[in-house]
Design goal:
single chain; 144 residues; mainly alpha; 5 helices; elongated
Length: 144
């Protein structure tokens, strides 16, 4: 039997992962530093691995993934493109990614609180995603 809170938490993680991967894709071509590009590429792979795991768990529950909120996705894309057209530097890329990670951590913690009855496996995955987002903000601080 599917735990509704588990499925909802995983759907939110799935949407967040897609948003994160999309955000990284949006900035990769603007990065000048090979080190920063490598940090973001590695993080994107880790996001994709968690995305695959999330998708597997949802499939086992008979559930489908969730797309990011179209409004949030659109606003993120606009902000990224406007900011990079004004200031196309690695500092700006790091700033944009940091903002996105902070929003992701905040949202994921909110979902962990909202879906308290989620199973431990789903909570663990959400916490792994939170840790991944938090670690990225630490890794890119030198580029701010």
């Amino acid at each position: 039997m599917t735990n509704k809170d588990s499925a909802e938490l995983l759907k939110q993680c799935n949407a967040g992962i897609k948003m994160g991967v999309g955000s990284i894709d949006d900035v990769l071509d603007n990065i000048k530093s090979e080190d920063l590009k490598n940090i973001l590429s590695k993080n994107k792979e880790e996001h994709q691995n968690l995305g695959s795991r999330t998708h597997e768990l949802l499939e086992k529950m008979g559930e489908e993934g969730k797309e990011p909120n179209p409004m949030a996705k659109g606003m993120s894309w606009i902000k990224t493109n406007v900011m990079l057209s004004i200031n196309d530097t690695d500092n700006m890329v790091a700033d944009l990614i940091t903002d996105g990670c902070n929003m992701g951590v905040k949202s994921l913690n909110r979902y962990l609180n909202q879906y308290k009855a989620a199973d431990e496996q789903s909570k663990k995955l959400a916490k792994q995603l939170i840790d991944l987002e938090h670690q990225l903000t630490i890794d890119i601080r030198p580029y701010l």
